Amino acid sequence: MKNKITLKQIHIIIMIIGTIFIFASVFHTNLWFDEAYSVGMANQTLVDIWNIGGNDVHPVLYYWMLRFVNILTNGSILAYRLFSALPIALLGLLGYTHIKKDFGEKTGVLFSFLCYFLPMMAVYANQIRMYSWAIYIVTILAIYSYRIYLGQSNKKNWIIFGLFSTASIFIHYYGLMAAGLINLLLLIFLIKNKKWKDLKYQIFWGIIQVILYLPWLVYLASQMKHVSKGFWIGFDFNSLLELISCQMTGKYAKWNLWVGTVANLLLFVYLGVLIYRNRKDKTINYKPVILSVRTLYCSNYSSSNYHSNSNNPNYILPLFICSNRIIHFCC
Predict the structure, then answer these.
(1) How many domains does one find in the chain?
(2) Chain centroid to CA 87: how far?
(3) Does one domain contain both 71 and 54?
(4) Same domain, yes or no, for 158 and 34?
């Protein structure tokens, strides 16, 4: 009798095919406006990137990273695209190395599959922008903050937590918001449960992040004043469907809005059915799940109030990527 293929083997196959799929679309040298800006920034010195970035609407960590790619590859457009695809490939690997360990093998397989094959992930992997790195960095932060929440408090976990929390605040302003939310919820949990030793670690990393971010606050204040006049702030509810649907089907065709929205709603209906079927199982805590769903939709609704580029799903996803885990801190 032939041996049946195992879930582990399926997982490995998904990672191999997924990695090939993610990298397959990067072999071209076409540029759109934002990518051209990234390429231009990569040609500057680190000091110039800081000074020029202060007049942009993004922090400078990604441009600094891209500068080193520029130095190593002599400004290769292909290298820039490979650099953007790398974090999505690594994100899928987290399903095997981390998510499987924390949430089970089936969840790990599903996580990897979605990371590789959601349409918007392929878009992020193909753009010379910071979005793919923002997703990866925030996800690492969420994973290790969740492990600390579970009681796996050790120096390694706190160092990774601190480093990726710091990276999150400098990779994108929605990374800053995600890191702030994660740190706040973890702080509430540590105080609520009187974990004073762990609280000292978080305060230590909080102080480091504040000190490192202080020089950028002048630029942040200036940028907020600038974008509040029309680039971000405004009221536009038409983007709600796009925010709900784009990760499922992409954002470049109108019919995708309805297909993606229906797909997401069906997933939540399925979640509701599972909760109902297992309602008598006292070992299952559904409060985090319910709060996660509510938080996700409230976040989507709130995000839809922003005008123009701020409701671009590229910007919002770092906030959503960890929503199903960080809410556990308050439960």
Answers:
(1) 2
(2) 11
(3) yes
(4) no
